[in-house]
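Fold description:
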Amino acid sequence: MSLAAERAEAARLRAAFQAAGAQPVECAVLQPAETLLDLYGEDIRGRAYITADPARGEVMLRPDFTVPVVQEHMHNGAEPARYTYSGTVFRRQDSFPERDSEFVQVGYEVFDRTDPEAADAEVFALFADTLDGLGLRPVTGDIGILTAAVEGLRTTEARRAALLRHIWRPRRFRALLDRFSGKTPVPPTRAALLDDPDPMAKAGPVIGLRSRAEIAARIEVLRDDAAQPPLSREEVVLIEALLKVAETCPYALEHLRDIAVDMPSVGAAVDRLARRCEAMAARGVAVDRLDFEASYGRTSMEYYDGFVFGFVSPDRPDLPPVATGGRYDALTLRLGNGAAIPAVGGVIRPGLVLTLRGAA
């Protein structure tokens, strides 16, 4: 596949999004690293290309378009607004060395507070129509349902915050859930630390970035957590049941409504899912055959906080998703200096479209 062919396909996709009402925008290749590190934490260093600029400090080769598009909209955009863009993004692929670390994306973003579920349906239906004929399997999810479940747990604010912070890291989330529920015993070294009335008295010289005061404060946090009662077994079972939901939308909705009877905190999020399904059906989406997975998007969609979707090739499991997207309302709040607007969007990889079209 030539770069010229990939760019031509990107132009075709971008034109389709413009025809749907999107305004074209451009984003700089070099982005301030501080913004992305603040959003994602130091973890992003292992996935991005970071360098130093004499005038701007740490900068990052653009890992995606969503963050700069949100920043531009929150500073200068009118509403409602629809944007499209195309260009190269850069991501290290240490876990998948066979995958490209430099590839083209084409995106479509909607900023509209009128009817969020209708906007979700608009984006999904547009992507489904644009990718029609490639034999892709669409899958949907909703990070907001799991978030609502965690926010409703009868436990401390600190434990809820820890679980929310690691929703996008399933293994860490599972480990915390096991620890907070008492399923995993306290490690002997931590037990000894917490039992010591003055652990700092035996401490050697400070190594690393934390001061003695910060280390002592952390020990007190651990002591406070150890004194808390475990999460109830009933709540843990409900979260486990929620995470296992993987059915077509109507059956998933029925299952989630059953869970909501015993976990009322997810009720509003489940109602939003129901309205989204209705809006999709109104746009011609075959909701009865559309897959819903409650855990979908938890390993690669860190700024999405609601509806998520992807289009994958059943015949090419070696390929990453051809398209992904979702809702990111919280991101607009964080980048908007107190202002916020509901937002949803997604990206397509034109190189993968050409790969599948050539294999057809």
Residues 18 and 153 are 44 Å apart (CA to CA). The longest strand covers residues 81-90. The radius of gyration is 22 Å. The chain has 14 helices and twelve strands.
